[in-house]
Amino acid sequence: MFYLLILLLQMKLIKEIIDLNKAINKETRLGFVPTMGSLHKGHEALIKISKKKCKKTLVSIFVNPKQFNNKEDYKNYPRNLNNDLKILKRLKVDYVFIPTIDQIYKNKKLTKISIKKSDKVLCANFRKGHFEGVLNVLNRFVILIAPKIIFLGEKDYQQFFLVKKFIEKRHKTKVYLCKTIRSSNRIALSSRNRLLNKTNIQALSLITNKLLDLKKKIYKNRSESEALTNSAKIELTKLFNIKIEYLENRNTIDLGSNISNGPFKLFVAFYLGKVRLIDNF
Fold it and tell me: Which of 188, 206, 164, 151 minimizes the C-alpha distance to 267?
């Protein structure tokens, strides 16, 4: 508690919208890093880029119930506010916004958000309402904060793709993509990794490396991408006893399935035990 009080004296911790308005009223070059807390080195990288590109940086910590299509998943999402504040203090973040659910969703007049049928691929196909929830909350944050730039991680590339298209069409805010941060065993950093045991972490490292090798094979022989991907899906399921929701190649322009020319990514979502993980390569 004493340490938290010290943090409050040195860093602007904001919980109410009225206080947010007072704090950032005159900020014109504000960087915004939206998070759900349980911060790691990936979040730190986003914050450092924001600090380089913007005059001030605001980080939000808000576990958004609207983007969870599973109540148990929302309940079990890792939370550690005291540790998060220590990290943000060390990084010298200017503003930290920690609103309640009522604070964010009290405006009932905002139009209901939907995404196009053509965009309902990958996670949007398997997590009904997830991205509608993401766009809803980020739209509300942008209206409140009016940041110059939002910083998002490449690990959630589909999220970046949809947020950029939605936010930049409606607001003056730009959406900036930041490279995926990986650990020494090449695992993409994620708050959900904290829900895994040591055995699962070892398996995740092996799975990740096999997928990185698969991407290289597909890159060299795009005409065989479907066969290579299907074969890998069968192999990974048997080797690691995992449930794969999707393993697909999509171009990075419109997330279409045509990867014959131009940049593309290999997207995956799977369950390791009860934990749902995503990545792209």
Answer: 188
At 211-243, the pLDDT tens digits run 999 999 999 999 999 999 999 999 999 999 999
> pTM score, two decimals?
0.93
**Is residue 40 annotated as part of the catalytic site, yes or no?**
no
CB atoms within 10 A of CB 261: 9
Task: Supply the pLDDT for residue 26.
Answer: 92
Q: pLDDT digit string (tens) for 136-165?
A: 999 999 999 999 999 999 999 999 999 999
Over the stretch 19-51, which tens digit does the pLDDT of each residue have? 999 999 999 999 999 999 999 999 999 999 999
pLDDT interval class at 10 (50, 70, 90): confident
Among residues 40, 43, 130, 171, the one annotated as catalytic is 43
Full set of structural domains in the chain with CATH: 2-178 (3.40.50.620), 191-280 (3.30.1300.10)
How does DSSP assign the chain, residue by residue? -HHHHHHHHHSEEE-SHHHHHHHHTT-SSEEEEEE-S---HHHHHHHHHHHHHSSEEEEEE---GGG-S-HHHHHHS---HHHHHHHHHHTT-SEEE---HHHHH--TTSPPP---GGG--THHHHSTTHHHHHHHHHHHHHHHH--SEEEEEGGGHHHHHHHHHHHHHHSS-EEEEEPPPB-TT-PBP-GGGGG--HHHHHHHHHHHHHHHHHHHHHHH-GGGHHHHHHHHHHHHHHHH--EEEEEEEEETTT--S--SSS-EEEEEEEEETTEEEEEE-
